[in-house]
Amino acid sequence: MSVMQKFSLEGRVALVTGGNRGIGRGIAQALAEAGAAVAITARTAQAAQDAAAELTAEGHTALGVALDVTDADSVESAVAEVEVALGPIDVLINNAGISIGGAALEIDDDVWTQTLDTNLNGVWRCSRAVGRRMAERGGGTIVNIGSMSAMIVNQPRWQPAYLASKAAVHQLTKALAAEWAAHSIRVNAMAPGYILTEASPVDQPEYYASCVEPAAMKRWGTPEELGAVAVFLASEASSFMTGSVLVVDGGYTLF
């Protein structure tokens, strides 16, 4: 197998949670371009189907499925729907997440609960639902979307729930990698820095001092750049990697 062939996802089925916009959409695009049949999920079926239609229009195989990662029944139903339509899932990208700012003494308890339930418990639910099936078939690949915020305290916007949830995702990644290596399931994570998306307008002047200038590369990243990293982690190009957390932050955490 040549080097470039190792990056191919031809014949693979990939599931991207929260794949209808932002980072998830960039990853879904990259996986499709690498040859995978891609299932995109969103909280509403319409949002997922619209994103999948964009990939289909480009000649890729794609499916849009409604999925609420905070609901165990929804997770099981969505996974089953994907496998009926596209086949067994070879690659799971746990991307769905939320970020709600607020100081620890000011936010309501439900902000903490909602954030942890989506960002951490959602990864747990999806990983178990798909991982169980991967173990039965003899292997697969899981990529969790963590954050550089698992390693630093972002300034000036306080967001303790988000930081805690992403730190937990990184440790869960390592725990599952250690446990599931016996089933030939590789589990890795990405830790993105500031990425320009609809929900993160870091191109606006008010973000420069805290989000752009401190990074060694003096710029923000794009979902397309994360998509390429996701292909690497999902493919045979990273076949000897599991339990790793790849930081993709333009050098923000170097200082």
Description:
The chain is α/β, with parallel strands linked by helices and 255 residues long. The chain has a 7-stranded parallel sheet with strand order 3-2-1-4-5-6-7, sandwiched between helices. α2 packs across α8, α4 runs parallel beside α5 and α5 packs parallel to α6. It is globular. It starts with a helix and ends in a 7-residue tail after the last strand.
Binned strand content: 5-15%
Order of helices and strands: HEHEHEHEHEHEHHE
Which structural class do the helices and strands define?
alpha/beta
Please state the CA-atom Rg, rounded to the nearest Å: 17 Å
Quaternary assembly = single chain
Family: Belongs to the short-chain dehydrogenases/reductases (SDR) family.
Pfam families: adh_short_C2
GO molecular function: oxidoreductase activity, acting on the CH-OH group of donors, NAD or NADP as acceptor
Keywords: Oxidoreductase
At a glance:
The protein is an alpha/beta fold and 255 residues long. Helices cover 45% and strands 15% of the residues. The protein starts with a helix and ends in a 7-residue tail after the last strand.
Map the helices and strands.
Layout: H1 3-6, E1 13-16, H2 22-33, E2 37-42, H3 45-57, E3 62-66, H4 72-86, E4 91-94, H5 109-137, E5 140-145, H6 160-180, E6 185-192, H7 205-212, H8 223-234, E7 245-248
Parallel strand pairs: 1-2, 1-4, 2-3, 4-5, 5-6, 6-7
Helix pairs in contact: 2-8, 4-5, 5-6
Task: Fill in the keyword field for this structure.
7 strands; single chain; 8 helices; alpha/beta; 45% helix
